[in-house]
Amino acid sequence: MPSLFEELIVSFTPEHHVLIEPRVLETIYSYKQMRLTSPESGGVLIGNYRGSSIHLVAVTTPKDGDISARHKFLRRSKCHGMEVNDHWKKSGGTNCWMGDWHTHPEPSPTPSSIDTKSWLKNYYNRPMVSLIVGTSSIWIGLHIDIQCRSELIDIHRLEKSRSTTS
Hints:
Layout: E1 8-11, E2 17-20, H1 22-29, E3 42-50, E4 53-59, E5 67-69, E6 72-74, H2 79-90, E7 96-103, H3 113-122, E8 128-133, E9 137-144, E10 147-154, H4 155-158
Parallel strand pairs: 2-4, 7-8
Antiparallel strand pairs: 1-2, 3-4, 3-7, 5-6, 8-9, 9-10
């Protein structure tokens, strides 16, 4: 089945880019919190380094054992790590954990203080990516050392044009 999205390339500096595959965008987009009862969802970003750039090729999705509520998602299942290990093995040691993604129940998501504390604790020795999926846009953060560069992308801009040409 063809994807609704095209690949996304976000340039943060002349040297640092993030390339996100359509299947990654489609998967995380499917978890948008569009209902008042929709809980936060999240998982792990899987990809590889291309020089100083990052290529995201897959994600994990919520699992049994994760904790999810309207304004909270805690990744607790060991299955996320097992999926990352599977990707590592299948890729010959190139695909690995590149960061995390989760949803927020707002059109233009911004990181919470809990998000930033988590990133400072866990993203310390190599460039990493964070994605926060809102109802209308996606916040993308590239963490380099202790700095975070970010971009807010309109979800509708990412969707392939549905018009047909004659």
